[in-house]
Amino acid sequence: MASAPRKRPAAEPRAGQKLSPRGELKRTQILDAAAEVLAVRGFAGTMLSEIAERAGTQAGSLYYHFASREDLIEEVLRRGVTLTMAHVRAALTELAPETSARDRLAAAIREHVRFQLDVSAYARASARSTGQVPAEMRARINREFRRYGVFLDELIMEAMADGAIDPGVDRSALRMLLIGAANWTTEWFRPDGTSNVDEIADLLVRLMLSGVAKPKPGRRLPKKSKVD
To answer: CB-based contacts of 159: which residues, under 8 Å, 6+ apart?
Structure first.
C-alpha cells in the first residue's frame, strides 16, 4: 500500500520571523484569493492551482507562506468568523444610545447577512465551508463561532428582558436557528434572484422578531426598525 503523502513543510518564513512589506502583501493576496475560491467552490473543490492563479503566483510559492493547503484554508475560515463579528460589533457601536434591544438585535441580523452576501468573501467562505472541513480543523474554527455565539446570545437576552422576545423560548435553539438561517443564505442567494441583499436581511429580521403569518383583519404588522 502506498504511503500517504507527507505534509510539506513551509520553506520560509520561520516561526517568529517577520515578512517584508512585499511578503505581507503577497500573503494577503493569497488569503484574499483563497477566500474567493472557497466562497464559490467549498472545501473539497478548492485547488491550490486556482488560488495561485488568482493571487498571481505559482502554486509551489504558496508553501512559502503556509505549511499546507489545510493551514491556508483554516486561516481563511477563522478570519471569516472574526471579521463578521468585528463588523457586526462595529455597526452596533454606531447606533444611538437609546436604541432598543429589539432594534439592536435587528441591526445585528441585518449586518451579518449584508456582510456575508455583499461585502466579505471571507465571511461567505466561512459560512459555506466550515461544515465541510476535517473534524479537528472544524473544532478549532468553532471556538471562534462560540465567541460570536456568546455575543449574539447577549443581544437575545437583552431583547428578552426588554419584552421583544418571549423569555420562554429556548435561547440556545433560537440562536442556532438564527445563525443557521443567516449562514445558509450563502448557499442559495443569487444577485439576479427574486430578492436583493437588503430584502433578504429584512425578511430574516421579520421572521425572527415578528413572524411572517398574515395579520388578522385590523391588526397591523410591527413597524420596520429604523436602524439602517
So the answer is: 101, 102, 104, 105, 165, 209
3-state secondary structure of 192: coil
CA angle 166, 201, 181 (to 5 degrees): 65
Q: Give, as one character, the DSSP assignment of residue 163.
A: T
Residue 2 in this model has a pLDDT that exceeds 50: no
**Contact between residue 121 and residue 36 where contact means Cβ atoms under 8 Å apart:** yes
Please name each of the domains of the chain with its CATH number: 69-209 (1.10.357.10)
- Residue 59 binned pLDDT confidence (cut-offs 50, 70, 90): confident
Q: How confident is the model at residue 25 (pLDDT cuts 50, 70, 90)?
A: confident
How much is the CA Rg of the chain, to the nearest whole Å? Answer: 21
Question: Residue 35 has which C-alpha cell?
Answer: 477566500
Between residues 148 and 15, which one has the greater pLDDT?
A: 148
Q: Of the given ranges (21-25, 136-140, 155-159), which has the lowest mean pLDDT?
A: 21-25
Cell digits for 6?
507527507
Which residues fall within 8 angstroms of residue 72, CB to CB, at 6 or more apart? Answer: 30, 31, 34, 48, 51, 62, 65, 66
